[in-house]
Structure to design on (342 residues):
């Protein structure tokens, strides 16, 4: 049976050449089974003769295993929430997709941490993580790379990427990512022809390559992203990445906004005052970095500048580069001009 072991399949490519798949999705012709499952925004994965998925029900964080041939539930395990992050309504406590192999599955719940289960549902290890800081919450998924579990946790403050021993859960290394303020990108493993394996990770201001063995930065290049989401891809030695960004600010200036919404004229912008804004009113928590109910000029300007710069679909040939990539490493870039503020 073909395996789909992580978010977007083998190494995040979205492609599995080992399987035979239908060319239409007509339930009357192609549906083998159907089963009701609890709600969760994570994707299912298949490995080692198991189909795994995660979900949540109230304070219960669920991991479920099914027989992929019949849809029969084999087991479900429940974890209690340790944190209760207040996140934007479109996110979910079970957004990160599990990572699985023949040895079982690793799940990540931001409200709890990392947990590994054997194929029979036995808990192998658990690593508590959090709390995390970010209005939109976390959604990047763990991946398995050899004997490591890799997890990226980009957040407003204290963002990091870490590696854990796949057999025991013990930390192997941790690398801080202070510039990655808003992002949900899952990393991928790049194996250069003449070098050691690298982790390619998209952030809100740049694309980084880290040593898989140590977590040390190998090379990087600035890329604007209004919220890093996509997983980079590799085609031979070439790296492909796509970001959404802009050459202009997303929001008006602080003074313009005060003039429109500062009802009591105290030169401060509160959540209640800004709520009527038709575009960003419900996103005030993104603008209010420290969560005190007031968006200061400094906080506003930081959010306003997010994603500014060169962005788009980009192809890179890093070769054996170290440090900042030279301009010549960018083989092509496709940018579509976007105007947000008249």
């Amino acid at each position: 049976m073909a395996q789909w072991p992580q978010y977007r399949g083998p190494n995040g490519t979205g492609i599995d050449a080992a399987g035979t798949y239908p060319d239409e999705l007509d339930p009357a012709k192609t549906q083998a089974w159907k089963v009701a499952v609890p709600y969760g925004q994570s994707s299912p994965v298949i490995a080692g003769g198991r189909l795994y998925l995660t979900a949540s029900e109230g304070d219960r964080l669920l991991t479920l295993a099914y027989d992929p041939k019949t849809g029969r539930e084999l087991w479900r395990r429940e974890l209690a929430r340790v944190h209760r992050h207040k996140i934007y309504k479109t996110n979910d406590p079970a957004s990160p997709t599990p990572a699985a192999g023949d040895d079982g599955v690793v799940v990540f719940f931001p409200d709890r941490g990392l947990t590994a289960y054997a194929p029979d549902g036995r808990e192998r290890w658990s690593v508590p993580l959090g709390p995390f800081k970010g209005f939109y919450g976390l959604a990047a998924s763990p991946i398995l790379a050899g004997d490591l579990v890799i997890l990226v946790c980009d957040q407003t403050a204290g963002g990091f990427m870490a590696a854990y021993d796949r057999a025991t859960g013990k930390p192997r290394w941790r690398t801080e990512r202070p510039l990655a303020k808003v992002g949900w990108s899952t990393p991928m493993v790049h194996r250069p022809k003449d070098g050691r394996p690298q982790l390619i990770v998209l952030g809100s201001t740049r694309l980084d390559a880290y040593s898989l063995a140590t977590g040390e930065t190998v090379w990087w290049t600035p890329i604007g992203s209004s919220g890093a989401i996509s997983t980079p891809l590799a085609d031979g030695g070439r790296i492909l990445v796509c970001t959404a960004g802009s050459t202009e600010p997303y929001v008006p200036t602080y003074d313009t906004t005060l003039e429109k919404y500062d009802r009591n004229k105290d030169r401060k912008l509160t959540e209640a005052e800004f709520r009527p804004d038709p575009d960003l009113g419900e996103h005030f928590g993104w603008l209010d970095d420290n969560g005190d109910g007031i968006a200061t000029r400094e906080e506003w300007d930081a959010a306003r500048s997010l994603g500014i710069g060169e962005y788009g679909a980009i192809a890179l040939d890093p070769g054996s580069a170290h440090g900042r990539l030279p301009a010549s490493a960018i083989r092509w870039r496709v940018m579509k001009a976007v105007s947000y503020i008249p």
About this structure: Residues 254-305 form one domain.
